[in-house]
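Structure catalogue
Derive tokens from sequence
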Amino acid sequence: MSITDIPFAVLRFQYRLARTPLQLIERRFLTRVDTEAPARLLYERAIGAADAAAGSFLRDNELEESGITRIEKASALGEAARLDEVAAQQKEQAADELQRKRDKAATAPQKAGQEARQRVQNARQKADKRTQDVAQSVASRTAQAKREVDEAAGRKVEAAEKAKRSMQNRSRAAEKVVTSVAEKELDDAASKRSAAAGARAHADRLADFSEAEKDKRQAEKSE
């Protein structure tokens, strides 16, 4: 050993001596902790980094390699734990997905029945609405036709009443004309009867006069 190696040898001894309590803790307590526990992995990385740095500085290859190995082991264990956690999550997700699929498969007939009943109900509602629409349309057309028939009948009745009134007016006019003619004929007949009576009276007077004249002449002849 050269004289320049003595200080490093002293420092290496002091470092190992300072690490002795940590080694006791590791043997007593750390062995009870799961190798993949996050706290232990953090501790392993920290101690490994310290050993690697000290070994590199103190020219202690064994300590440096031990520290690096400790870091790599902790990293590998951490990655394994991470992968186990991912696998567990994936397994849990797969189990949840499987359960959802099972629940969906179990509820599928019930859901299909509900959907079928809903479709039947919707179809009935649509049919009822169409029936109501048709009934309303028929009622509307029937009412419109009745109004048209009533209006046409009203117009016919009004035309018949008008024709009846016109006929009555013509009948009254004709009756008035006939009455006037009859009255005139009666007047003419009365005039004729009056003239005939006058003629008969005049004839009677003439006859009486002729008889008187005849009697007078016979009386004159007798004398």
Q: What stands out?
A: The CA atoms of residues 127 and 133 lie 10 Å apart.
